[in-house]
Amino acid sequence: MRPLMTCRPLTAVVAVFVWLVLALAGCSQPAPAAETAVPDLAALALPDAAALDLNGRALRVVATTSIVGDVVKQVGGDAIDLTTLMGPGQDPHSYEPSANDLTSVAQADVIFVNGWDLEEALVRNLAAIGGQALVAPVSANITPRAFNEANHADEHDHGAADPHTWFAVPNVEQWTRNVEQLLSELDPAHQETYAANAAAYLAQLAALQTDILAQVATIPPEKRVLVTNHESLGYFADEYGFELLGTVIPAMSTMAEPSASDVSNLIAVMAEHSLCTVFTETTVSDKLAQTVADELSACDTVNVVPLFTGSVGPAGSGADSYLGMMRA
């Protein structure tokens, strides 16, 4: 059975999940996702910061991913000189900096990263490249979600903490508070601006959370199941009561390689539950997802649905911001 590849970007994560439920035929009744946050996993912390002597210039800020950059932009506004290293469509796991990026990093006052080595090909070198810049994880003060290491003993550099925190809106609310705090400490002259911008953005995030909860409430709990490209939607599943039934790449990094048994096990799980839709991501190849789709012979049509997950969408896509990515 050949898969059907949707020809338009499906950027509204919740709306697509509702569509998935309608597309599932004869699905059995798995329980909603269990809470996987583990208290003894170390939460990240913001670095100590003191006011800088900016000499009338704007605070130089670097953000790694396009999602981090969007949140920093919402708080910093015109008061900061912001460089976002990764553009739309770039995979944060595999991104490597250009020469211009290295220059921006070297001149930065503060570098906002996601945390827990999401940007694994970049983050190890930031401290050396960045000179005197503070390296600040936006995911500080968030209780990390544990990765299921028992099922994936080969998981590499993330350790036990899942870095994909932005798929639960309350976590992005914490990102916003973290960014406001650090910008205000480094640049107290604009503290009121940062506070006002953060308050306005937090109100928009609260409205987004309300809308997501209302949308999810239309889905019967026993049908809240997901099959994704890699393990990026764990925080979404925990926050909104979904079960992650399987992944094409059984790891939190897109740089991991599934074994033949991983793929065959996923195909068996999908066949058992009559699942005919696989979510893939705009930042990575859908080749493995297509392989899985090819083997689902029980399905009349297999839908391979691309989502914006690790990056915002391009300008004009309706997904060119975090709010747009989650809602458009």
Explain the layout of strands and helices.
Layout: E1 3-5, H1 13-23, E2 59-63, H2 66-76, E3 80-84, H3 99-107, E4 110-113, H4 126-129, E5 134-137, E6 145-146, E7 161-162, H5 169-186, H6 191-216, E8 225-230, H7 234-240, E9 243-249, H8 260-272, E10 277-281, H9 287-294, E11 302-307, H10 322-327
Parallel strand pairs: 1-11, 2-3, 2-4, 4-5, 8-9, 10-11
Antiparallel strand pairs: 6-7
Helix pairs in contact: 2-5, 5-6
The amount of helix comes to: 25-40%
- Residue stretches low in confidence (pLDDT < 50, at least 5 long) are 1-39, 149-158
Number of helices: 10
The CATH level-2 architecture of the largest domain is identified as 3-Layer(aba) Sandwich
How do you describe this structure in short?
By secondary structure, the chain is of the alpha/beta class. Helix content is 34%, strand content 15%. The strands form 4 sheets. The chain has a 4-stranded parallel β-sheet with strand order 3-2-4-5, sandwiched between helices. The chain has a 3-stranded parallel β-sheet with strand order 1-11-10. The chain has a two-stranded antiparallel sheet with strand order 6-7.
